[in-house]
Specification:
By secondary structure, this protein is mainly alpha-helical. It has a single domain, classed as Ribonuclease H-like superfamily/Ribonuclease H (Nucleotidyltransferase, domain 5). It has five helices and four strands.
Length: 152
């Protein structure tokens, strides 16, 4: 969860929803949905940034990721949040300045941009914060471009 005020972007909270592989899929997806709804109710966000799925060689993992993303998107959609979806390359470009950035560079820049006094952990939380920073940058840029069009 990040909050933006002008060009400033600060972390309000972050974490991960964990489920266990031994649990039935309906229970796992239900937990993701319910926990995200609790976060939405607590912090009142208006937008969601989410990373698109990279379909590498592990299709089983990609399917599980797609299901989890679906539960997250539905939780946010039913709460009225707008969704911004970004590729891993777009997120790295927005946060680090290059789409070829490695994990350490992304974590370093997330920590710096959000003025954290520690590296966000686990890595999935750092990835989520990076997606939020990317969305904040994209949204701010679009707003500036729209304002320029109105003025010209």
């Amino acid at each position: 969860m990040v909050e933006t005020r002008g060009a400033a972007c600060r972390a309000r909270a972050y974490g991960c929803v964990t489920t266990h592989a031994s649990e039935p899929i309906d229970m796992r997806l239900g937990r993701i949905y319910a926990e995200l709804r609790r976060v939405i109710e607590r912090y009142g966000p208006t937008e969601l940034a989410i990373e698109s799925i990279y379909f590498g060689e592990n299709t089983k993992s990609a399917i599980a990721t797609a299901q989890a993303r679906g539960a997250a998107i539905v939780a946010c959609s039913t709460a009225g949040l707008t969704v911004g979806e970004y590729t891993p390359m777009q997120i790295k470009q927005a946060v680090v300045g290059t789409g070829a950035a490695d994990k350490r560079q992304v974590i370093y820049m997330v920590r710096s941009v959000l003025a954290l006094d520690h590296d966000p952990r686990p890595d999935h939380a750092a990835d989520a914060l990076a997606a939020a920073v990317c969305h904040a940058n994209v949204t701010r840029t679009k707003s500036l471009e729209e304002a320029r069009r109105v003025l010209t």
